[in-house]
Write a structure and sequence with these properties.
By secondary structure, the protein is mainly alpha-helical. Helix content is about 50%, strand content about 5%.
Length: about 300
Amino acid sequence: MISDVLSFIRICWRRMRNRRIHEAESADASVADYKDRNVRMLEDDGGKPYVWGFEHLDPFFGGKLVRNITTDTVRAFVEKRREAKAAPATLNRNLALLRKMMNLARKEGKIQVVPFFPMQKEDNVRQGFVERDKFADILSRVPDGLKPLLLILYYTGCRIGAAEQITWEMVNPDATEITIPGTVTNNKEPIVLPLPAELTALLKKVFRRDGSPVFSTLNLCREWGKAIKAAGVPDLILHDLRRSGIRNLINAGVPETVAMKISGHRTASVFRRYAIVSTEDIRKAMFAVEKNNGRMMEVGVKSGKRKKAGK
């Protein structure tokens, strides 16, 4: 959401207004501010919150003066992250985060020049998704409190950040629908979302309290990691459930415009990047085409010559 991006940039500015990238007390203030305003980009790992992205920038740029950050400095950071086996896409996200901060400082007149940022060629676009049976296996291995969250991600392609903002007053009395306001959805459009029966059954067992989150994320990272390892898919990430949910919608025959409304996508181009096609999808498609077209050559035809009638 744009509001989230703007809030994020304001936090970046607070971290830079003394011409420094990071100080411990400003980091603590940033985290507290994120919590107060319910801005996403926070993750709670074992009770210790952090802002996504800064954990890579802080060790290298912490304490450096902004005016002393040059393209050579950025290249040194890139090399260090490469040594840590960081993927090109991850590196680009790190660089984009730092560039946003410096551009804001330039607009505010705090620095004169923003250096050139050598962005990396991305050849590692993620194609991860999980099939139904494997997802059921993972679901059986997580605590009951996390099952509702994983189900809504897998059924709808909802973002984790959006799911975290759904509170109980948005859920109807019999837990069959959620009315999600435009302030939560990525496309800023409100939606009334009917829920699958198994998710309704789980939510009916949860104590309702207006204002409190519907979906728990308690120990999410740790429990997810244990579950995917036990299920034999250790490289699966939580965001793959969003890809899987979108693929599920498309495979179920849901029109693209409706699927985009459900998943919260604003543009078709971004949505289509999530609509992962597997080898099995292609195989089924070709079988369907063959069945629809029927046989186009007579049995026994050789060298392009048709058998004469009666022979």
